[in-house]
Structure prediction request, 356 residues.
Amino acid sequence: MKNGGVFLDKLRRFYKHIYEEPYTGVEGYRLFYNENLFLEDNYYRALFKEVEFEEDELRFYSDPYCRSLSEEIASFLGITPDMVFVGNGVDALISIIMDIAAASRSRVVIVEPTFGMYKSKAKVKNCKTTTVLLQKNYALNLEDIHSNLSDDSILIICSPNNPTGNQFEREDMLSLVESFKGLLVVDETYVEYGRYTLVNDIEDHENLVILRSFSKAWGLAGLRAGYSVCHPDIAKAFAGSSDPYPMPSIVKKIVARALKLSDYVYEAVEEAIRVRKYMYEEMLDINGVRPYPSDTNFIFFKAEDSRRLLEELVSKGFLIRDVSDKPLCEDGLRVTIPPKEIAENFLKAIRDKVGG
Prediction:
């Protein structure tokens, strides 16, 4: 084809941002997406049992900013509905934040290694960005972070962090939000597996934004549902930067129903934490493997000759994530916590390979 011209050349720079799902067409245990593998079928049966629809709910537009679901989430968290903004997954919320950063010409400060979507979205939106590395033990480097902040910065921290798995110390997080007048965005996608949440600190810190997801602990990754908790003025800014009707009616109803079934979710989370503890302790005893403490539903670990170990595990049906290309993650791999029997077989496969 011809006549693409300069404009098509410009568009080509976006090609590298096209997401490609790993292991497409490969059979095995899905241990690379950190989905909740502990929720049983009775949760999903109960989820759909009382979700009913009228024809007009599908025929007509309604509730352009998901206020009804915001009320359900607010009631669940014990906050006011005007502090909740609902989006089509955390990725969509990140995109809105980057839109605001670009429009306000605010610098986005990203703490790495972390979830790659922050940097990817910032590049697509042409945001000014600065990256700050964690310490070698994956703790926050407060001095370096502070030196890169200004009063109009947007600081993004994933806590518990992906891919390292650790939740940063609460005192450090609060010291950051108190030390500058910019926005601190904390991605709490994995918080159900962690030690604390900062949701209740928003009342005292107007510049604190929390992102939450229904994709992990709640087992609803296929719905693409997430929300932010923040000061009402920030929620209004999100609404002003968002497209109306960000979530289909059926998704809103299913998520609202899921909130009524939280006992199923928390039981599954508790079991995942038990298996996480078992896997971590077992991996500590395997020669050539170094697991890191986790506050998530996955374990980040390093291994000698990680590439060959990954290939061996994949050949045995354990599809895990290679994160060795991220800063400070050389030889790093990430495995979703699976049910106990699968975990035992996974550990055996590692021992068979490394002889530990």
Remarks:
- The radius of gyration is 21 Å.
